[in-house]
Amino acid sequence: MSSVRAFGILVVFAGVTIVLLPLQWVAIKLGIPLRRSLPHRYHRFVCALFGIRIELRGKPASGGVLMVANHTGWLDIPIFSAVWPVSFVSKAEVNNWPFFGTLARLQRSVFVRRERSQTIANRETIRQRLVQGDALVIFPEGTSSDGNRVLPFRSALLSAAEVTLGPGDGEPVCVPVQPVSVAYTRVHGIPMGRENRPFFAWYGDMELVPHLWEALKAGPIDVVVEFHPVTTLDKVRGRKNLAAYCEAVVRRGVLSALTGRQASPAGTATGDQLAAAVAGSEAEAEKAA
Questions:
Q1: Phi/psi of residue 69, each to 5°?
Q2: Per residue in 164-179, pLDDT tens?
Q3: Beta bridge partners of 55
Q4: Please, what is the Cα angle at 283 between 145 and 222, to 5 degrees?
């Protein structure tokens, strides 16, 4: 029965996607507002079709913002896009993936190259998108995890936060950075547990298509997406502090969702306090996992 359900979902998904692909392509070429709203509506439909129930906590920041989140796998993409009209900052290799690369381009993803010589060009592309009012999602872990923990955030991947968005009252405007935590909590309404989370977390050397099939067969799931308070690079005084701050906040959000315990609100702190928060939240995560 689960295979029949999964097959039916894929048939409907393929049909709707084929119809909407050319419409989104035209919207991007013409530069009309539909280019932002269509992926949002499409992924809301996809999440409903796949049986993904999203509990939203906090409020997404409006306008140009860099959203910094933990990464559990391919399901993060439709979930994020269903919650808010976003695009993603992705490695350049994704652009060449069959089918999924096409979807990423139509999501208006920013493809960045990792060579040092491309750093300035990558930042300028991201800056222009933020100035245009786009919400960009970046995954600073640099890879996906098993969903039971948050991996260390790489400060180098947050270099986009170092750009300025233009003059504001005579001073450069810093990029708004919003930490976001995503946690997969239940399957069929029952707490998922660390043994079942790999059915939905895509990481390591897992093959994408078989993992997609097994996830669809496994049944409806519940996901908690929490948008935390916005900060900026100047408030935490440095890119490394920014990475530590976002990591600690996101880890606490994931831990809160997985354990059902309400985490205390996070605020801007000094570098030493941030480092202590990271170490403390890591210990709590290991205990709860």
A1: -140, 160
A2: 776 555 566 788 999 9
A3: 224
A4: 45
Burial tier of 39 (Cβ tally within 10 Å: 0-12, 13-18, 19+): buried
Residue 132: count other Cβ atoms within 10 Å of its Cβ: 10
> HSE (CB half, 13 Å, CA atoms) of 27?
17
What does the pLDDT look like over 124-162, one tens digit per residue?
888 889 989 999 999 998 887 777 788 899 888 888 888
- Report the sign of the C-alpha dihedral through residues 136, 139, 143, 146, in that order: negative
pTM higher than the cut 0.85 = no
| Structure confidence at residue 203 as a pLDDT band (50, 70, 90) | low
Six token digits for residue 120: 């300035």
Q: Which amino acid is at 167?
A: P
Report residue 208 as tokens: 């994408």
Number of residues assigned to the chain:
289
Rg (CA), the chain: 19
* Tokens at 244, concatenated: 């530590």
- In one letter, which amino acid is 176? P
Please check whether residue 13 is in contact with residue 46, taking contact to mean a CB–CB distance below 8 angstroms: yes
